[in-house]
Amino acid sequence: MKRLQLITALIFIFFLIFVGEADAVTPPRISAQAAILVETDTGQILYSKNIHKKMHPASTTKLMTALVAVEKANMQEVVTVSETAAGTKVGTDAGLREGDQLYLWDLLKAALISSANDAAVSIGEHVGGTEDFFLYLMNRKARSLGAFNTCFCNTNGYTQKGHYTTAYDLALISRYVLRDPRLATIVDSSEAVICWINRDKKLVLENTNKLLKSYPWVDGIKTGTTRAAGQCLVALGNKDGRSLIAVVLHSYNRFGEALELFSYGFNNYCRIGTIEGQIEAELPVAGGVEKRVSVVSSRTTKAVIACSELPYLEKRLNVSPLVSAPVRAGDFMGTVSFYFKGEKILESPLTAGEQVDKKTIWQHIFRKKIFKEDSII
């Protein structure tokens, strides 16, 4: 009996496109001083321009303000507005007065949706005890996420010496912000209403991200504008099960350039990978009550490559040509790997999708008897 050996099956993935070399797509021309386009799930960079250049972040700062707040406090806590917060009137504000009381949740909506600067200061003072300690928490969180070229000196994004970030760091921070469903809901809201607790007042908030109302597939996340920072935008686009984050800093047309980046990413890049539980092959089983067993990927893996380069992608199944019963569901069966231009970029273990019991001696005898009787007839 020949011994079992692992074999490699090379499967070329064409994804319904013609075989051959396609022309590379020219990236868009972006006027912003810095810009980046990343795949939300994997963090893969699809477009970059000065992504590590330290820039004024303007109100995109409030993304970190909100992130630290939801991690350190209860959204139903009542916040009493201080004299300092109430006096923050440069730029957009929510009209807060000293002594006003609002729920922390409503202040977060004001900060993220309408970019209220007084709300951001009030959040920092309440959650941190002092604004200085809250800033320490913001900067510590930035470093923990890998945003090493970021430093926050205030909670709302006012231009200040030593207050900076980068397009790359903002993309990192934004990916983390979007993991929190509460924050993801806020930044996707085109409008909202907040209420005061201590006085009869309501305020209708309108999102400063104008893309939300015009493009249903745009789901956030934050604008920012100062004279020094120019027009800034972090935007989230979701189409056909794919998610991209576009960041433009100091742009003269932030909404238009974000749309250009989305068009480039969605139209010219393809998602590849495996899905947990997806059947990748079927293998013959020796001595089993079933003749074959399905082989499934044991985890989801994702990557993005240019559609024009799909002919250089190979999918390789490394499995045994034959397995012997018994087989238990979840037994290791091999691996499935993706290679791009000969370099491995993804790999997932393969496991048995179901149990296959070994035939008993009586099942063997019964099968042989049936076979003989059929042969006589």
Estimated helix fraction: 25-40%
Number of helices, counting only DSSP H or I runs of 4 residues or more: 10
The rounded Rg comes to 28 Å
CATH architecture of the largest domain: 3-Layer(aba) Sandwich
Q: Order of strands in the sheet with the most strands? A: 1-15-17-18-13-12-16
**What is the CATH class name of the largest domain?**
Alpha Beta
Question: Could you report the average pLDDT, rounded to the nearest whole number?
Answer: 90
Q: Roughly how many Å apart are the termini?
A: 32 Å
SS strand fraction: 25-35%
Biggest pleated-sheet summary: 7 strands, mixed
Listing every helix as H and every strand as E from the N terminus to the C terminus, the arrangement reads EEEHEHEHHHHHEEHEEEHEEEEEEEEH
Structural notes for this entry:
The chain is an alpha+beta fold. The protein folds into two domains: 7-17 and 273-361, D-Ala-D-Ala carboxypeptidase, C-terminal domain (Peptidoglycan synthesis regulatory factor (PBP3), Domain 2, Sandwich); 34-252, DD-peptidase/beta-lactamase superfamily (Beta-lactamase). It is built from ten helices and 18 strands. It has helices at residues 62-72, 83-86, 104-113, 117-128, 131-145, 167-177, 181-187, 211-214, 254-268, 361-376, and strands at residues 7-12, 34-39, 45-49, 78-80, 101-103, 191-195, 202-206, 218-226, 230-239, 242-251, 269-274, 279-286, 292-297, 301-306, 313-319, 323-324, 332-340, 343-352. Strand 9 and strand 10 form a beta hairpin. Helix 1 (62-72) packs across helix 5. The longest helix is centred in the last third of the chain and has 16 residues, at 361-376.
